[in-house]
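Structure tokens please, single chain.
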Amino acid sequence: MTPLLWLIAGHLLGDFAFQSEWMALNKGESWEINFYHAAVYTATIFVVAAIGGITLSVAALLILMISHFCIDPFKARWNLIHSIWIDQLLHLMVLVGIAGLL
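Here you go.
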């Protein structure tokens, strides 16, 4: 698999499978819970990428964490993004950028 596919696999696991119901329901109300979700998301991508033989730099991990922490409130907190597809497109753009740097 290409690095981008490994990153997308980690994204899907981290943003959906490993996001607890508690995180999903409360990340829009609490910056702390949003941080927990972004941390779990980033850690999941780190592990999945490592399984694929990809080493992510500290800078790449910070970009993943900070971008996820910043993008999610546009939908979950402020309702500025109404479609999950726009939210996911923004996350995908970050992943494409990181894959391009690998």
